[in-house]
Amino acid sequence: MSTPFLSVSDLRVHFSTEDGIVKAVDGLSFDLEKGKTLGIVGESGSGKSVTNLAILGLHNRERTTLDGEILLDGQELLTASERTLEKLRGNKMSMIFQDALASLSPYHKVGVQIAETYRKHTGCSKKEARARAIEMLRRVGIPQPDTRVDDYPHQFSGGMRQRAMIAMALVCDPELLIADEPTTALDVTVQAQIMDLLKDLQQEFGTAIIFITHDLGVIADIADDVLVMYGGRCVERGTKKQVLSTPDHPYTLGLLNSMPSLDGPVDVPLSPIPGSPPSLLNPPSGCRFHPRCSFAEKVADGLCSAERPALEVAEGRGSACHLTPDQKRELFADIAGTRHN
């Protein structure tokens, strides 16, 4: 069996605050192969972005406790020096942030910002870096890149700024690309264009992609495998088809039931998940989803609130739930998961 390009094992990211320790990520493991896309989905505060900032080494280590292991092509990242991480960031691994306007400097031309990244990692001349910036703007579909390379971010539309961010992230041909909700706040047409662009570029470069989102519709479009996070933990993982067609955890089921169907009856009411995500400063005991789970009462002896369910994974498929397989088949029978596939 081949070694995965990215391997995250028992990752824990805890923040020290005046009120106590925030367990933002609490024992997370997953693997990612080259050329594949892993979709990480969950509500705000589930630990998605925190996980990927840990991979990039962007947490403040003075206030953050990082435990576990992150291997990128065999290289350990959690214990790597800042100098080593600086060489890797933007070069071997890169990230597209959610808010392109906030991520791009308003004081520098777009082309200069893309070229600066390329020069830092290659040591090339300004002329070569500018030519590379124009090439990347053309590759991501920016019209008239020879001219737009000298524009400032505010002169770009939202979709064009996001494309420029993608150009900057890919300028050094990284082997790992982390996309943190890159289509948020874009209209659906531009969203589709960005998704198609990422898939085309992945096919061209063979890049491994981690795609963070709260939108299962986006996951259905781009991901090969899916990891569902809740309360800083993975509650379910599997292939896209497995997770979206036959969910194996009540939280995943709740996410699917809260989404409108494009091909189903328009008058079917949505079923939002009751309650709010847990406080990671003082999380619930046992299964962190149990206070919001409509099936917790089906499990005997209050097991859901007393004991953390193990995430048992076989051939990439598994979930952390105390319900038996027979109970899941009976209780989840009404979901039409295939409408999301």
Automatic annotation (TrEMBL):
Membrane topology note: Peripheral membrane protein
SMART domains on file: AAA
GO CC, one annotated term: plasma membrane
Gene Ontology terms describing biological process: peptide transport
InterPro entries: AAA+_ATPase, ABC_Ni/Peptide_Import, ABC_transporter-like_ATP-bd, ABC_transporter-like_CS, Oligopep_ABC_C, P-loop_NTPase
Every ABC transporter domain range: 6-256
Location in the cell: Cell membrane
Keyword Metal-binding: no
Keyword Cell division: no
Example of a GO MF term: ATP binding
Pfam family, one: ABC_tran
Keywords annotated in UniProt: ATP-binding, Cell membrane, Membrane, Nucleotide-binding, Transport
Assigned protein family: Belongs to the ABC transporter superfamily.
PANTHER family membership: DIPEPTIDE TRANSPORT ATP-BINDING PROTEIN DPPD (PTHR43297:SF2), OLIGOPEPTIDE TRANSPORT ATP-BINDING PROTEIN APPD (PTHR43297)
NCBIfam families: oligo_HPY (TIGR01727)
UniProt-recorded name of the protein: Peptide ABC transporter ATPase
Protein species of origin: Streptomyces roseochromogenus subsp. oscitans DS 12.976
